[in-house]
Each structure stands twice: as C-alpha cells, then as structure tokens.
Amino acid sequence: MDNYFDVVARQWEHNPMRLERAQATADQIRQVNFSARKSLVDFGCGTGLLGVQLRGDFQQIHLADSSAEMLKVAQENVSVAGLTDIHTHRISRLTDLPAKYSAITTLMTLHHLADLKQFFTDACQVLEEKGMLMIADLYKEDGSFHDHHPGFDGHHGFDIPVLTAIAEGCGFQVRNAQQYYAVEKENKAGEMVSYPLFFFVAEKI
Question: What is the distance of C-alpha 178 from the center of its chain?
C-alpha cells in the first residue's frame, strides 16, 4: 500500500472529508487527560493533517510515516508555514524513532498494519511512563471500505474487545473506547455506506 499512498500524496488534502475527520480526531485528543505534553507522535501521519492541528497542545509534534511522498508534502507544509516545533520521520515501525514520547496517535493507520501485537509492543517501548496511546480507526466492517483498492491486504476494521485484549497484553490499560465519527463512502454498487470510527485510548502502565 505504500506505493498507493506515494501516488495519491499530492491529491490527499483535496478531499475535505479528510480535514473534517482530522479535526474531529484532534477534538477527541484534546479531551484526553495526559500526564505529560512534551511530545506527540502522529504515526501514519500522511500529509500531517492531524498532527499539525495539535500544535500548542504539545511542545513538539513528530509526524511519522513510511510513505516518502506523503512525508514530502507534510514537510513542505511545515516549511511554508515556518513551523519549528514539528518534525518529520520516515519510519516503518515506531521503534525506528530516536527517543521516547509523551503520546502516540494514529488515524486510520492501524488497519494497514499486519502485526497488531508488534504495534502495541513497539508503542509501549517508545512511550514514556504513563504515556498515552490513542487510536482512531474503523469498527469491524464487511470489507467494502477498501473495495476501490484491490491491493489492500490489511484488516477490515476491529472489534474493541479484541484490541483491548491485545493492548492489555502488551503493557497498557485501556481508558476509553467510543464511536466519534463516521466516514460516508460509496461502495462498488454505487450505494452510500456509513463506516463508523472509534477513538481508543490506552495508558502505558
């Protein structure tokens, strides 16, 4: 899928729904009770739509992604705006990052990751003590969300009890999980379908 994201990077921000979705997610993040606000990692950041909105909520924002083209657009946006508290990192795993952080967030990224246990283990490793992990993603769906991407080989959304069990087995205590947004999308049959998203908050213990 990295090649797909490289191809669409320049058009990514042309869809107003993506900005709306990022704004809704940022609103959820601002409601979380953090023990520290030194640094936030936006993992799978794309062009930085979510992370940039959280400037001022954290001292430093780190935009991390595996797509070179997405990060190129993100860095251009940061440079044009003259933002010195936002940094970009091209990584495949969280453990590729150079330090420990106060918080990690992902927006529509987890369903692209094959190994969920590895992700939660990595997140626990790079978070500071009592660091917060926030995941915004799809509830379990019928597979139609990615109908237009025949190369998709990820997860068709998630069941919250399954994610909770994995997170707790990797060193987290789940604080909250709730629906907060829905993506309206046309399926192959030309029908508009609503795909609800959850906001999942876990604290490193």
Answer: 16
